[in-house]
Amino acid sequence: MNCPYCSSADTRVVNSRPSDEGAAIRRRRECTVCGRRFTTYERAQFEALMVIKRSGRREAFNPDKLLQKLRIACNKRPITEKQLREFAYTLEDTLQAPEVGAEEIGLHALRFLKSLDDVAYIRFLSVYRDFDSVERFIEEIKQLGAPSSEAEPEKR
Ligand SMILES: [Zn+2]
């Protein structure tokens, strides 16, 4: 850690202690060249997946936000909370990209739901607002194929 005053690389730690309830380590350092003291904070940093919104704004991917939308779509459907969590919390690894369009997230979620339950899939289409347009929804439905007969209104 170079001294911020004289840029010397020769600094020593005077003391260090946990900070921010253990989420960071605060270190008081002293430069051995100019003698001045300064403070550094060390904290863990996730390599966050960035989501590019339609507006062009970037924000860190939030699996909890996605999970919330998935829960709405899967309400009273035969999909477990565990399945949803596994999907939402592993998506970041699945995508393996530093940044991704918001639509891409939605499409992954749609494919995931399609593999489990057609009703939840259709519901998700209506709660997911990050698509460009209704046309994209329709296009996506076509690509995934029409819902299977299981999802048709109760005939049984
Ligand atoms: Zn210095």
From TrEMBL:
Q: Which family does it belong to?
A: Belongs to the NrdR family.
| Cofactors that this protein relies on | Zn(2+)
Q: What is this protein called?
A: Transcriptional repressor NrdR
Q: Which UniProt keywords apply?
A: ATP-binding, DNA-binding, Metal-binding, Nucleotide-binding, Repressor, Transcription, Transcription regulation, Zinc, Zinc-finger
Q: Which HAMAP family match?
A: NrdR
Keyword Secreted on entry? no
On cofactor binding, the record's note says: Binds 1 zinc ion.
Name the PANTHER family for this protein.
TRANSCRIPTIONAL REPRESSOR NRDR (PTHR30455:SF2)
Ranges annotated as unnamed zinc finger: 3-34
Gene encoding the protein: nrdR
Q: A Gene Ontology MF term for this entry?
A: ATP binding
Asked if the keyword ATP-binding belongs to this entry, the reply reads yes
Species, as recorded:
Truepera radiovictrix (strain DSM 17093 / CIP 108686 / LMG 22925 / RQ-24)
Residue ranges occupied by any ATP-cone domain in the UniProt entry: 49-136
What Pfam families has UniProt attached to this entry?
ATP-cone, Zn_ribbon_NrdR
Coiled-coil regions listed in the entry? none
- Cited function: Negatively regulates transcription of bacterial ribonucleotide reductase nrd genes and operons by binding to NrdR-boxes.
Which GO biological process categories is it annotated with?
negative regulation of DNA-templated transcription
